[in-house]
Write a structure and sequence with these properties.
By secondary structure, the chain is of the alpha/beta class. It has a single domain, classed as Alpha/Beta hydrolase fold, catalytic domain (Rossmann fold, 3-Layer(aba) Sandwich). The protein is globular and about 40 Å long. The chain contains 5 helices and 8 strands; from the N terminus they run βββαβαβαββαβα. Strands 1-2-4-3-5-6-7-8 form an 8-stranded mixed beta sheet, with helices on both faces. Strand 7, helix 4 and strand 8 form a beta-alpha-beta unit.
Length: 217
C-alpha cells in the first residue's frame, strides 16, 4: 500500500456561524473525486473516528478520492449543540464547501453512516454527484427524503441484522425513490464489526461507477 501523509486538520464554518473540527486526507495519485464522510449519532457516541468512518477515511484516499471527515456540532472539538438532525444539514454543507475547495478533478459524493446517512440523504446540494447511505434509519431530521426524487445516483448499504431498522423496512421505504439501489451485507449488525471491508468495497464500487459514468459536480 502506498504511504500517505498525515491528515490535515481543518476548521469548517457553517452558515449559522458554528465552527466544526474536521480532517482532510488527500488522494494518492491522480484524483478521482472528493468524498465527505458523515458520522453516526452524536448522542450515542458517534464521532468522525467511529469504526466505519475511519475505515473509509483510511481506504478511499488510496483509491484516489480526497476525503473530508468532520465532527457534527456539539461533538468533541466542534462548537454548537446537537440540532436533532435539523441543524446538522448545515454541517454537511460546510463540509462540502471545504472539500470542494481543494479543487480536485472527478466526482463529489457524500457518504454517511446511520445518523450520518440520514444527514447525507437530507442534503440535496447541487455540488453532489451521488450519495451512499450506510444503515440509514431514515428517521432523523425533517428532510430525510430530500433526495428521494432526485435523479442523481444513490446507493444504500444495509446490515442484515441491523438492530435499529431492518433492511426490508428500509427497502420498502425507499421503493419509490428514483435512481436508488441497495445491497445487504450478510451477517452484519448496524455497527458492521468484522464487516467494514464489505462497506468499503460497496462504497468504492459505487464511486467507481460514478467516475465511469462521467459524473461531474
Amino acid at each position: 500500500m502506498t504511504a500517505t501523509s498525515a491528515p490535515e486538520p481543518v476548521e469548517l464554518r457553517c452558515a449559522d456561524g458554528v465552527a466544526l473540527e474536521a480532517e482532510w486526507a488527500a488522494p494518492v495519485g491522480a484524483p478521482r473525486g472528493t468524498v465527505v464522510l458523515c458520522h453516526p449519532h452524536p448522542q450515542y457516541g458517534g464521532t468522525m473516528r467511529s469504526i466505519v468512518i475511519s475505515a473509509l477515511f483510511g481506504a478511499l484516499p488510496q483509491a484516489g478520492y480526497g476525503c473530508l471527515r468532520f465532527n457534527f456540532r456539539g461533538v468533541e472539538g466542534s462548537g454548537g449543540t446537537h440540532g436533532a438532525g435539523r441543524d446538522e444539514v448545515l454541517d454537511v454543507e460546510a463540509a462540502l464547501t471545504a472539500a470542494t475547495g481543494y479543487g480536485l478533478d472527478g466526482v463529489c459524493a457524500v457518504v454517511g453512516w446511520s445518523f450520518g446517512a440520514d444527514m447525507a440523504l437530507s442534503t440535496a446540494d447541487p455540488r453532489i454527484d451521488g450519495w451512499v447511505g450506510i444503515a440509514p434509519p431514515l428517521r432523523f431530521g425533517d428532510r430525510v427524503r430530500a433526495v428521494a426524487a432526485d435523479p442523481r445516483p444513490k446507493h444504500l448499504v444495509l446490515a442484515q441484522h441491523d438492530e435499529f431498522r431492518a433492511p426490508a423496512e428500509v427497502e420498502r421505504e425507499v421503493a419509490d425513490w428514483v435512481a436508488t439501489t441497495a445491497e445487504v451485507v450478510p451477517g452484519a449488525s448496524h455497527f458492521f464489526v468484522g464487516r467494514t471491508d464489505r462497506v468499503v468495497t460497496a462504497t468504492a464500487t459505487f464511486l467507481a461507477a460514478l467516475v465511469g459514468a462521467g459524473a461531474t459536480s
